Amino acid sequence: MATPDYCTARDVQAALPDGNWGETYDDVLASCVTRASRAIDAYLKRAPGAFAVSDDSTRYFDGTGGAVLWPGEFIAVTSLSVAETGDPTAYTLWAATDYVLWPYNAAAEGMPYERIDLDTLYGTKTMFPRYRKAVKIVGKFGYSATVPDEVQAAAIIEAARLFKRGQAGYQDYGGNPALGQVRVTAELDPQAAQVLAAARFGRLTI
Question: Around 52, how many Cα atoms within 13 Å sit in the side-chain half-sphere?
Fold first, then answer.
């Protein structure tokens, strides 16, 4: 499945209402939207499409020898299986009642989960066996299933900027009656970056 974008060409057109659009620039705007979406992923140090995850994927992790596993940001766990004897071809499905997801209120707060804790009090498992590739998780990995408003807004801003810069031949400088000659930054648009910073998505180190 194609990596999802965080806004549409129509969203960008709506943000630039004075344009005589029709369908003339649909392909160009769609390209700008994709480039803007991937620029936001890179700026926030997330995997491509992390803010619009719809499909399950399978990932493997080494066992920790303890009751805690940090698999990175994820939205949901469909299944968790463990190679209990260390055989990477023989995984045992563990019940959802054997573990809990943390932070506990992540879904209610529109945040991703980050950690899996074994329920050593009420579950039947006490540790993730210390074997390589011992844990297999099928689930939705990323920040969110629905694009956050701030990410969509930043994508619109960045896509519009790319489109307008393309109209100017991608020059490094542009003219402005009030400011005179202005240098165009090569990084993410400052207003887009400000929107993302206000939402506190952070620029994580992977």
Answer: 20
CA distances (Å), origin 190, targets 134, 169, 194: 43, 20, 6
Over the stretch 34-46, which tens digit does the pLDDT of each residue have? Answer: 999 999 999 999 9
Q: Are 27 and 186 in contact (CB under 8 A)?
A: no
pLDDT digits (tens, 9 = 90+) for 65-99: 999 999 999 999 999 999 999 998 999 999 999 99
Residue 64, token pair as written in the block: 């920790």
Model-level pTM?
A: 0.84
Q: How distant, in Å, are the alpha carbons of 27, 58, 100, 142, 170 from that of 166?
A: 13, 39, 49, 31, 5
* Residue 60 DSSP one-character state: E
Instruction: Report the alpha-carbon distance of residue 165 to residue 192 in Å, rounded.
Output: 15
pLDDT at residue 168, rounded to an integer: 60
Asked if 106 and 113 touch (Cβ cutoff 8 Å), the reply is yes
DSSP H or E stretch at residue 33 = helix 26-43
pLDDT tens readout for residues 52-69: 999 999 999 999 999 999
Q: Please report, for residues 34, 82, 155, 164, 192, the alpha-carbon distance to residue 39 in angstroms, rounded to integers and kept in the order given.
A: 9, 36, 9, 16, 11
